[in-house]
Every structure is written in structure tokens, then in C-alpha cells.
Amino acid sequence: MLFFVAFPVRAEKAVFAAGFEDLPVMAGLKQADDSSVSFDTPAGRIIEAYLEGDNAGAADVKDFYGKTLPQLGWKAVPSKKAERFSFTREGEVLTFTVDGKRPVTVRIELTTR
User: Fold this and answer.
1) 3, 12, 57, 113: which has the highest count of C-beta atoms within 10 A?
2) Is the bond preceding residue 103 a cis peptide, omega within 30 degrees?
3) For residue range 45-78, what is the model confidence (pLDDT) as tens digits?
4) What is the DSSP letter of 42?
5) Is residue 83 within 8 Å of residue 28, measured between CB atoms?
6) Distance (Å, rounded) from C-alpha 88 to C-alpha 98?
7) Among candidates 75, 105, 78, which has minimal Cα distance to 93?
8) Is the entire prediction scored with pTM above 0.90?
């Protein structure tokens, strides 16, 4: 018991991509300034955001979101490319396009099917 008192555990606060209520930003990436666009249409919503960072590659991004998003109800759409991959949930499609140059840029687009 004394061990837990002496070394308190601090949970990291989750950071979410602008415009998305439940899309975490992968560690090593950050939201690109003024890059988020959001529209509500009669057919559904359209959101676009960009993340960037020096400490991630296309495979890292695909691996992180491939493990994280199914826990949030997203279903992966089969893709052989690490630089472009998608997920679906409740009539929406979430697509990631990764530019592997340094710094890495990740374009995230949410559209209605």
C-alpha cells in the first residue's frame, strides 16, 4: 500500500482530433494548425482533419488506428496499403491517407456512405 502512495500513477489525458468526438490522436502526432474542416449536410456530416509528426510512419499509424478504432465501434475495411486505409461505422466511412515523408502527414476524412 505504501508503494502506491509514494508513486502515484498519472493517467495521460486523451487528445482527440478536432471535429471528431472520439478519434484519438496517436502519440507522436499532433493536429496540424487550422486544418480541420467540418460540414453538416442533409445526407450526413463531412469532416476533414490533418495530423503531423516526426515520430511515426505509415505502418505505425495504420497499426495504432487498426487496434484503437475497433474498440470504438469502427470496423476495418480490408486494405493492403499502409498509406491508405478505412473504417466504417453506422453509415459513415473514416479514411486515413498517410504521406510518409518527414514530417509525416495524416489526412483523415469522414464521409457518409
Assistant:
1) 57
2) yes
3) 999 999 999 988 888 999 999 999 999 999 999 9
4) T
5) no
6) 18
7) 75
8) no
